[in-house]
Write a structure and sequence with these properties.
alpha/beta; Spore Coat Polysaccharide Biosynthesis Protein SpsA, Chain A; about 45% helix; about 20% strand
Length: about 325
Amino acid sequence: MLSVIVPVYNVEEYLKQCVDSILQQDYELVELILVDDGSTDQSGNICDEYARCDSRVKVIHQENQGHTAARQNGFHRSCGEYVIFIDSDDWIDEGMFLLMMEKAVKENADIVQCNYRSVRNGIHRDEVPFFREGIYDKKALEIEIYPRMIYAGGYYRFGIAPNMWNKIFKRSLVEKFLPNIEKRVKSGEDGLLTFACFLEAERVYILNSCFYNYRSREVSMCRITDDKRLVENHLLFQCYQRNFMQYSFLQDQIRHYVVYQTLQAVAELLETRSLWKIKKEYTFLISDSIERDSIKKIKLAEIHGKKNKLILIGLKI
């Protein structure tokens, strides 16, 4: 069975499209767990209506605790051998579950990943696959995937997108890592599970068929305001450091990721304050931290864009 876990928070405009796309899949061995994370609109009522009409649907209502807690509570209620987490403002194409589960069973895969498209203002853009389609055993993962998993060059490209929503995970993997993700992490937490599962996996199937529709919008469940983003990033980076820095092949990749995210956050903050004020407010940028270490070790030539280079120079100084 496949357990589909959907955290729900104030998405009444999009929720029916998401749920319908799941329940209309031609793979029948599905349970759908909707976790209403303290919605203040009609989302909770919509969840209950689906549960009344379809025995495959279970609903959890909880006080607002955030994405991670919603996923953890939904997983605790689930019973499928495989698990997928889908965002409630997105939707999936027909045939996604059937093909992905066929690959999971036939190839005895711990993870199956499909491709996805970004949808913004009615414009659909398919992500360009980075890795070849097919099965990767442990040796292939070590040679091909891990060296380019978090940073695959450019500014910025993941080899494996950190998102949970285009991946089916074997239950045993999720069980090992999801409970340990800090609920305080409000942004970027997907990678803490995804990358941990990839490192633990013995067999992964990469499917380049594009099934998942990621709705990119101005206000989302995980959006962090600019003045909190550096602090949220700092907490996330500490988790990356604690969980992944022991892998020597990931150290440089994580440093690139840290610098990329830090430059993005600082660039936004510079629209309202000076670099000097940012330095005084966010002392971890100049103290002994993963940000400071990464900024020191990343070379200017590795960063693209004049603005980004100037910000990096300022942070280095």
